[in-house]
Write a structure and sequence with these properties.
The complex is a heterodimer of chains A (491) and B (85). Chain A has 491 residues and is of the alpha/beta class. Chain A has 11 helices and 20 strands. Chain B is mostly helical. Chain B is elongated and about 55 Å long. The two termini of chain B are 33 Å apart. Classes of the chains: A alpha/beta (491), B mainly alpha (85). Bound molecules: flavin-adenine dinucleotide (FAD) and iron/sulfur cluster. The site of iron/sulfur cluster has 14 residues of chain A, from loops.
């Protein structure tokens, strides 16, 4: 058995883990990061969807919920975690969500408290608004529709530097423009002395006398690794953090471990336009429409190369072939629901089983959202609209099993709540009832956000790291990023 | 089956892998396709997987205005020129 020692052992190198690791290491702590997946080499990114889905995503992008309807739930695996394969959209936590957290979960997190955390993260990730030139024609279709209908919309803010709009963010950015945590925070962590071990599957958190003593892991070559550390930060993501806590016998007293799962279920529609759209030219997710945010749904861009479009297009047979022959004139846009449905994750034979059923209120949001989506495309001048519904189903009467859904934002399975009887973690993200174990990933986010979550997760991780160092969060500029642009495109 | 689709399917846990391979085999044959047409969501899964492979073919992509190799080459050149990671 191999043995290592550290002040802090961080489990998982995704959105939350990488941020905590870098901030702790730069604060002078001895940090060890254990990541189950590999370090992916951008030289091996091919911009070809099936191959990249197989290589960059957990289980070849085949993670899915069990329930009505089943929902595909892609997760990243490797240095950078899901940030390596995400779309790069950046939203701060909406203020009304923070207010709800204070009232419902007793969390002392308001806009002012989190502002320096967000500033730090946004600087580190070079977050900036997409320019109209980079947004591309697919975004322009949705923008035109929203404009004509008078719907509130705008260009999204993203973590990208020197982006050239190559359209494959979710298949591995070949230009390293997307500032995922694997090329931002992880290099900072290692520069500050942190050690990163890839291929390390953490099996258990070792607890003695009610306090963390480290973790045990299995390495890719089968060897065992034991890490001695008085502080463990768990950041395996919303699906795998509750499983590690369960294997370690932690966080179960409140009955919430693995429960309270929100997903932001989503879908997308296509439209056949008169003009060439070439949807893979430009930033796939560059425009949002938030006209209906208070009704619980939002629209955001979605697009990709032909193989991706063919996979997602809600048609079969001859109709699919005809629509794909017109790929250059196809536009696509996404619909995301801020869900009230709640699911649960548990382990069966060591694997995650994710139970999630769409509740009636969320079904109503999808029905309304799909009708609005059709309205949007028609206002933009679409000849035909292809909604993600089973043949013969109509949006206004669609049943859960008629919907073709995916989800990208699992949250809440180790939810933060000041009360030990209600939450797995407390307001400082410490696991209730155990000393030295904290959680820094999507699992602590106690409710759906209604917006993409990576920035929220990273801001909470920043706050946690500074809390562990016993320092106030400074919003001073983070160290320079991993590269500089010679052509002036970088923000 | 394309190399890319093979990589995709090989990475899936065995029940999904076996299921998707079976669906792709069925949807390719007229009688199998007719059988699948009775279960629209299953038929959709079969088409999604089949066409993920079909439209990944570089020649098919180029005919539709998409050149993956060119995108990758441009990315590599930019990374080299600008010292990106
Ligand atoms: C296709 C896609 C697009 C998205 N687009 C956006 C977007 O535009 N904007 C946005 O805000 N969000 C987006 N998201 C969501 C966002 O990326 C995630 O919410 C975020 O990355 C979650 O962070 P995390 O720290 O919880 O987990 P992750 O980033 O998933 O990191 C968890 C890490 O832990 C590792 N791990 C798991 N178990 C173990 C173990 N036992 N031992 C060691 N390591 C382990 C995993 O391999 C993984 O690398 C998208 C997601 C997807 C799938
Ligand atoms: S659009 Fe292309 S260059 Fe820009 S972040 Fe996405 S993959 Fe990278």
């Amino acid at each position: 058995m191999d043995r290592l020692e550290a002040d802090f052992c961080v489990v998982g190198a995704g959105a939350g883990g990488a941020v905590v690791a870098a901030e702790l290491a730069e604060g002078g702590a001895r940090v060890l990061v254990l990541e189950q997946g590999p370090q992916h080499d951008p030289d091996s990114f091919t911009a070809r969807p099936p191959e990249m889905l197989g290589r960059l995503y957990r289980d070849g992008c085949q993670t899915a919920t069990v329930g009505s309807p089943p929902i595909l739930l892609p997760l990243g695996r490797g240095v950078g975690g899901t940030t390596l394969v995400n779309s790069g959209t950046c939203f701060r936590t909406p203020p009304h969500v923070l207010e709800r957290w204070a009232e419902e979960f007793g969390l002392e997190l308001d806009e002012a408290t989190l502002a320096p955390c967000f500033e730090r993260v946004e600087q580190a990730l070079s977050v900036a608004e997409v320019t109209p030139e980079l947004a591309g024609a697919n975004a322009e279709v949705a923008r035109r529709g929203a404009e004509r209908l008078g719907w509130s919309h705008g260009y999204l803010r993203r973590n990208a530097r020197g982006c050239v709009g190559s359209g494959v963010c979710v298949f591995g950015c070949p230009t390293s423009a997307k500032q995922h945590t694997g090329i931002t925070y992880i290099p900072r962590a290692t520069a500050a002395g942190a050690q990163i071990v890839t291929g390390a599957d953490v099996q258990q958190i070792i607890v003695e006398g009610g306090r963390a003593r480290g973790v045990s892991a299995r390495l890719a070559d089968g060897r065992r690794l034991e890490v001695r550390a008085p502080e463990v930060v768990v950041a395996c993501g919303t699906i795998h953090t509750p499983l590690l806590l369960e294997r370690s016998g932690l966080g179960g007293a409140c009955g919430q471990r693995g429960g309270n799962l929100a997903l932001h279920p989503a879908t997308s529609a296509f439209a056949l336009m008169d003009e060439d759209v070439d949807m893979a030219r430009g930033v796939p997710q560059s425009v949002y429409i938030d006209e209906f945010a208070s009704d619980g749904f939002m629209f955001e861009g979605a697009a990709g190369p032909p193989a991706y479009a063919a996979m997602v297009l809600p048609l079969t047979g001859e109709r699919h072939t005809r629509a794909m022959a017109d790929y250059r004139r196809l536009a696509q846009f996404g619909l995301m629901v801020s869900d009230e449905s709640r699911g649960r994750v548990h382990a069966v034979a060591g694997r995650a089983v994710i139970r999630y059923d769409l509740c009636d209120r969320d079904l109503a949001k999808f029905r309304a959202g799909l009708l609005r989506m059709r309205e949007l495309f028609l206002a933009a001048g679409a000849r035909e609209v292809y909604l993600p519904l089973a043949p013969g189903a109509r949006p206004e009467s669609a049943r859960p099993r008629d919907l073709k859904l995916m989800a990208f934002h699992p949250l809440g399975t180790a939810r933060a709540d000041a009360r030990a009887t209600h939450g797995v973690t407390d307001g400082d993200l410490a696991v209730h009832g155990t000393l030295g174990v904290h959680v820094a990933d999507g699992s602590v986010v106690p409710s759906a956000l209604g917006v993409n979550p990576q920035l929220t997760i990273m801001a909470l991780a920043t706050r946690l790291a500074f809390g562990l160092l016993g320092r106030a969060v400074s919003s001073a500029p983070a160290p320079a990023g991993a590269h500089t642009s010679a052509n002036g495109r970088a923000s | 089956m394309s190399d890319g689709l093979d990589t995709f399917l090989a990475a899936a846990p065995w029940p999904q892998r076996a299921g998707l391979r079976l669906l792709v085999a069925l949807v390719r044959r007229p009688r199998g396709a007719a059988l699948l047409a009775r279960a629209p969501l299953v038929e959709q899964a079969a088409w999604s997987t089949l066409t993920l492979g079909r439209y990944d073919d570089p020649a098919v992509g180029r005919a539709l205005g998409w050149d993956a190799a060119a995108v990758v080459e441009r990315g590599r050149a930019l990374r080299r020129a600008e010292g990106r990671p």
